[in-house]
Amino acid sequence: MKRKKSKAARIIAPVLGLALLFPSISPEGAYANAGKKVKALEFIGMDAPITADDMAKAYSAAFLKVTYTNGYIKSYPLTYNTLFKSTDVISGIPAGVVVDVNGKPIMDTSVADKPVPYVSDAPDANTLFSVKGAAATGLGGNPLSLLTHYEYITSNNAGKSAYGIIPASMGLSTIDQNKQTGELKVTDVKKVDFSAVGGLWIPCNGSLTPWNTLLSSEEYEPDARAYEKDPTQTFVSSFTKNFYQDDKKVGNPYAYGYIPEVTVNANNSTTVVKHYSLGRFSHELGQVAPDRKTVIFGDDGGNTMLFMYVADKAEDLSAGTLYAAKWNQTSDKNGGAATLSWIQLGHASDSEIKTYIDKGLKFSDLFETTDKDTAGFTKIKTYPTGKIEWLKVKPGMEKAAAFMESRRYGAIQGATAEFNKMEGVAINTKDNKVYVAMSYVEKAMEKDAKNEDPADHIQVAKLKAGATYELNLLGKQVDSSQKAIDSKYVPADMKSIVFGEDLAKADEKGNTAVVDKVANPDNLSYSESLRTLFIGEDSGMHTNNFLWAYNVDTQKLSRIMSVPAGGEATGLQAVDNLNGFTYIMSNLQHPGDEMLAPEPLKAQINEFINKYWDNKRAGSVGYISGIPAISKLSEGKE
Fold it and tell me: Where exactly are the structural domains of the chain?
């Protein structure tokens, strides 16, 4: 006969069971933290995946450890949740479908007699937020809105590259947030209408403004000089013909390479404007500072530039002043360090620059050119060519050049055009810091050993695994002409704080960078409440890309998610206390693309990726759950 457990034993046993599962959980009872303050938050990371099955999945095995002032400890396991795959049919359409100027799916006719809609496998930026006055979802939860970029299509139905040829798109998802559990469910998806702004060029990351709109992005701006010489050397013509479904439609490279701002209205309609006065370059994203008028940008590609914009009015990005930075090096180690000085490029309004575009100004209208050192011409080297050019701005074209050829004009003015793969940007409001990811610290960032380049401001040691930089934001700064900059959030210096480590040769999984350090940082997002910088990888050096949590106080780095081999971790957004719940939005794109794993492991992974991700046709839109709102922790409600 089994001895009957006492009432106390029946209560304590499950708690002890949890303590065995998560050793950091104290068996003192669910409310031992009541009335106590949080002393420390710590992400306990996960190992890199080992099996081929796990290497083909998106998952988290990490957890958040919370320590209270009374010594009580509680752990919260993290879970990755897929909201939908880009190939899932929702509201009658595949979520990642690409549409033309009339909102109709653009058809892939690459396989004769088998036309299918183009569907992106590359979801990128996520912006989850609440819209005041939004209608109920019908599921009883809080209605939320989710805007998602679909950056490109890796290949057409015949297996050939479709990158840049087909217009990009953006989806607006209606999300139901369970009021008790915080679980998110998609109830509707529709495409955002970009017909008023000529379509959406390649969108990468994005950010939520303090006034509840999305700052989108258009990266890898088409080279107007190359287009004028030979239109087939850019994607402009194919993009335009596909968007307008008109083979006679002529494109304009100066119509793309800007920051679109998207507003979601209470009736679920959207409004889109392009901010031409924010400059034209390879916009990874724009991040707004707490003053609601200073914007700091990432500029993706090789030979790129660090830009800043200061609007005339808070919460209005339609007019302002554009600046470019000069790097004044103080260290060459681990990605390097420098002080920054700022060069004013000019002041403009969106309407002014749009007038230039509508007039059909060409590259040759803005610049005179030569092919050798010539008096009056400036020798520069910038993206998108990455080649030496000799340019002179034509009289009266200074403003047009500053905002339509921001990087070329900035280089003429002496700004640094040597950054390489400058990606995500995130702001730490409390500490007045901004973080910038440099995916690959190499090429133009290395010392010019041959003394051939026009300038050599950056001379750091090569670090192919890349680095994330911290920039201090200060007020009372002046530009290079000693004119005051009207902002309290001007980056004054720049140093690397998280950096990878290159390997001399690949390990058994195919990694060419140390697997327990960040390699090739891309997406960044900062959580004020968690004091944590989240870093997503776009690595050509890790077989699996990871999402990392970096505590800015303790400098601890923790791996919290793995995405399928050959896929990129995208769509990163730390969402603090949205109706009492915290989320880390996170997507993945192009799973299985260009895998580093050696055979036979590569073939084994491919089998699982084809099974899980629709034969490599699908990306995933999702989020990490399990992190409680910090306000609830402090109140003892968790």
Answer: 81-278
